[in-house]
Amino acid sequence: CAGCAPLKSFTSRKPLEEQLDEETSIDAIMGPTERKLRAADWERRRESLTSGGVAYEGLAEFDSAQKLFDAGQYRAAERAFHALAKSREEKGKGFLNRLGEIFTSKKSDEGTLFGQYGDPIHEDALFMTAECQFAQKHYSYAQDSYGTLLEKYPSSRHLDIVTQRLFYIARYWLGVPEKKSEPESEIQLVNHETDGETDIAIQKVTGSAGWPLLPNILDRTRPVFDTEGRAVQALESIWQHDATGPLADDALMLQATYAQRRKDYIEAARLYQLVREEYPDSPHF
Prior knowledge:
The chain is mainly α and 285 residues long. The chain is built from eleven helices and two strands; from the N terminus they run ααααααααββααα. It has helices spanning 16-23, 32-51, 59-70, 74-90, 95-103, 120-135, 139-152, 159-174, 227-241, 248-261, 265-278, and strands at residues 190-191, 199-200. It has a two-stranded antiparallel ribbon with strand order 1-2. A hairpin with a 7-residue loop joins strand 1 and strand 2. The two termini are 35 Å apart. The relative contact order is 0.11.
């Protein structure tokens, strides 16, 4: 009921190609170069507005919230960024739009500020809301907020940082030891020094975090339910939203190793196959 990861192996799985063909649209997907160009374009526009003394709606509120964040007042900054994102979302909606959302679960962007690439103030406010939660080590809330950002902006200008944050959260929840001498993307998942035996280098999660249906009440850094299942969701979000990014193969490999540790060998084999087929140049190959 809580969506625990061990139950995933019993669900039917289709090849990745079929999932992409049936469920995924690439209309709003951009490559890293296009994302950088869009980010540079927004910075130029913002600097031009600021230097020209033009009052761009929402920019002053964003800068005020940013000052709170820079001062380390993360809770106050989180409230300010969240309120700004909410106001930008509702901006321009008419009575019929609001009435329709009461009876449907799907929100409409018609009549709002969102254009072809969305609203940059809204995008930045969503991102900074998640950053405030991450800074407070409220990782479950941060994961949800990063997910909201990627749902609205699949090719967000902040995608590189978002994937790094999600990878850190997944590693923390799965108990993957960090080595300070290595880059973030270089992780030792499996030790093959012993012939015929594989020592998986993931620490076992203990306590309430290791029980999907047992609520976690005291540890604010972990979700209330199913810590490991939420970690797998974070890893999937990385390689699904940024398949060509530097952490995509690491996320897949870590997810495969987690499945191997849980003795879910069918799922582990499927993910290892994806690593081999999609990332032949990966050091994990």
